[in-house]
Design a protein that fits this description.
about 450 residues, alpha/beta, L-arginine/glycine Amidinotransferase, Chain A, 2 domains, three-stranded mixed β-sheet, 11 helices, elongated, Arginine deiminase family protein, hydrolase, membrane
């Protein structure tokens, strides 16, 4: 059911900034990769600018008293400080994405070269210590920008337009390839003890109106639901998760199921596009919370639909449920983004279940716990065990040795204890009435 608050946000969600399945210069990479690429480009452009300028201006003194090699050294010495300043300016410009096109690259390089010429010349005067930086001296320095420094400006601008964009693309492509190969090489990565973040959202007062697909509506006790939610958050925090509360949305019935709005892969938070219209107004609040974290945000474009509850990541594989909430366009766009990060994507047809992760989740060692009756055909997972109960297939890893299991699945809890795991049981009965499970109640950033 769509209310007025939902409609007021629909345009915002559908027309917001997109970073979809198209290739991007730096968005799949973290800030360290982007700044290192910007620095390498800046050093290359500055060095070539310096060398070309020195060669162009290296002429024998008219008195004939200096040999060309001596003149070369003096010319190099004159331009080396402005070139070092140019490295700093170009690094900043590259960090802000100036080298994505030839035009912005040329403009950024020209402005950086002008600033470097003025500041570098001034620093040279200060280092010399024989002249004060008076207004008259600053005027002389400004005049030399298009005098002695004219070749410097020309070469920097041309290199900013031609060399910088090409070089940045090559560096970032190499970074992405290395990221992918690294993930494929290391395979299973254990859950860390620190740096675990979980987004949570308090249940809406209207949760009784939540969207249902595969089960009959049952009365929800909101007092009990709020109590169960508090216990859920306490359990996360007890096992080292830092919880971030997304702004409450009292009129959005399904908003407590925050997992459906984001999929996180290697520092890239993919903001999804909900499979039912009434849930799309929930996204802005989740996106605002993501913007406070150290992640790169990507989004899916219409007509794609994808719920985060349909996405299960095991080692270097992303399993995505082909459910009533996730369509083919959503799977294609997720596959493209995941592929850029070195993951392969496997689509999994499911039936009789809302989401993939209501019938299949992974233990900390990568083994999948599944409810086989919800799948069409053979299970696609290389390591899988069958849950004793249907709700037992939705488990929540808390650390490398501990998992949470719904209180409605005591046989599965015993089953996992026999495998050597410490098991925490949690009553989520009121959320199960809204087709939710343990994983649905948080979006985890590891």
């Amino acid at each position: 059911m769509t209310n007025e608050h939902d409609l007021s946000h629909e345009d915002e969600v559908s027309t917001g900034a997109r970073v979809a399945a198209r290739p991007a210069a730096d968005e799949p990479l973290d800030w360290r990769s982007r700044i290192s690429a910007a620095l390498l480009v800046a050093v290359a452009v500055s060095l070539v600018t310096l060398l070309l300028t020195v060669v162009r201006l290296n002429e024998t003194d008219v008195t004939g008293q200096r040999m060309p090699l001596q003149t070369l050294g003096l010319t190099f010495d004159f331009y080396v400080i402005p070139s070092l300043v140019l490295v700093v300016f170009l690094t900043i410009a590259g960090w802000f994405g100036a080298f994505r096109t030839w035009f912005t690259g040329a403009l950024a390089a020209l402005l950086s070269a002008i600033g470097s010429a003025i500041l570098g010349y001034a620093l040279r005067v200060l280092v010399g210590g024989t002249v004060e930086l008076t207004g008259e001296v600053w005027g002389i320095i400004a005049q030399q920008v298009f005098g002695l420094f004219f070749p410097f400006l020309v070469y920097a601008t041309l290199l900013g337009a031609l060399l910088a964009p090409w070089l940045e693309r090559r560096i970032l492509e190499a970074e992405r390839a290395a990221l992918g190969h690294g993930r494929q090489a290391r395979g299973f990565v254990p859950m860390p003890d620190e740096g675990k973040i979980a987004l949570v959202r308090i249940p809406a007062d209207s949760m009784a109106d939540a969207e249902l697909t595969h089960q009959e509506r049952a009365e929800i006790d909101m007092d009990l639901a709020n109590e169960q939610w508090e216990h859920y958050v306490e359990l996360l925090e007890r096992y080292g998760w830092s919880t971030r509360e997304v702004a409450a949305a009292p009129t959005m019935a399904d908003s407590v199921f925050v997992e459906d709005h984001v999929v996180v892969l290697d520092g890239v938070a993919i903001a999804t596009r909900a499979g039912v219209d009434s849930r799309r107004a929930e996204l802005p609040g989740v996106r605002a919370a993501l913007e406070l974290e150290d992640v790169v945000i990507a989004e899916l474009d219409a007509p794609a639909t994808l719920d985060g509850g349909d996405v299960l990541v095991v080692d270097d594989t992303v399993y995505v449920g082909a459910s009533s909430r996730t369509n083919a366009d959503g799977i294609r766009q997720l596959r493209a983004i995941a592929g850029e990060l070195g993951y392969r994507t496997v689509a999994v047809p499911i039936e009789g279940a809302l989401h993939l992760k209501t019938v299949a989740t992974a233990l900390p060692d990568g083994t999948v716990v599944a409810w086989p009756e919800a799948f069409e055909g053979a299970l696609p997972f290389p390591r899988v065990i069958a849950a004793e109960e249907r709700t037992g297939a939705s488990i929540l890893p808390l650390d490398a040795e501990t998992v949470a299991v719904a209180a409605s699945a005591p046989k599965t809890a015993k089953q996992l204890e026999r495998l050597g795991y410490r098991v925490e049981t949690l009553d989520v009965s009121e959320f199960e009435k809204a087709e939710g499970g343990l994983t649905c109640l948080s979006a985890r950033i590891v």
